[in-house]
Amino acid sequence: MTSDILQDLQNSPSLFLVGADLTSESATKSIFGSAVERLGTVHALVVSHGLWIRDDVFLKDMPLERWKKTMDINLTSTFLVTREFLKGLEDAKARGEDPDKIDKASIVFVGSNGGRIGEAMHADYSAAKSAMMYGLTLSLKNEIVKIAPKGRVNCVAPAWVYTPMAADALKDPAIVYQSLATTPMKKFGDPFDIAAQIAILTSAKVSGHVTGQVAYVTGGMEGRLLNMKEDLQG
């Protein structure tokens, strides 16, 4: 997200923006404290932050520093944010808040198609997203109902999306071809495609009986084109 967009959002009277290092336990606690003070109990959580490092590196050559950084930003921070959200629901329940609001709490993670099909030379990212999409989502769908009986946990998993983080990679003709060659819609997604699916899964009215699911917003992408024509010659 660009600074211009953030500035526009900050000026909106209906939004409350707080910046924080989500790999920090104390910072994560602080943003939830600020949100509750300003808006009241948080009943819906969308975890959409993440990091994909552009450099292609085989696992055998990957520095531990890179692995830890990717895991901290994509997975550990997700744990911290989700934990504070669930604690907030539990505290609200103890205070006697309207149970109808708490009972319909919702979590939506943003994963990646790479968590399903893998991504060579980006095993750090794929591993972190896969853990979120499957291990964490499927575990939490059974935990959240102990606090919020109708609470739900789901995940949206995009393929390539036109975002600032992906902009440089999508200038590479090889990446574009290898991705779209297995995508029947022959196009990349845009942020609205992902946001719309998140809104659907967050809503208890339209997705009240949907939990533990991964919704793939990929244009039908079936996998990765591993070999170009020239790779098969000789």
Automatic annotation (TrEMBL):
Keywords: Oxidoreductase. The keyword Oxidoreductase applies. Coiled coil: none annotated. The keyword tRNA processing does not apply. It holds the Pfam family adh_short_C2. It comes from Marasmius oreades (fairy-ring Marasmius). Belongs to the short-chain dehydrogenases/reductases (SDR) family. Transmembrane segments: none annotated. GO terms for molecular function: oxidoreductase activity. PANTHER family: DEHYDROGENASES, SHORT CHAIN (PTHR24321), ESTRADIOL 17-BETA-DEHYDROGENASE 8-RELATED (PTHR24321:SF8). This is NAD(P)-binding protein. InterPro entries: NAD(P)-bd_dom_sf, SDR_fam.
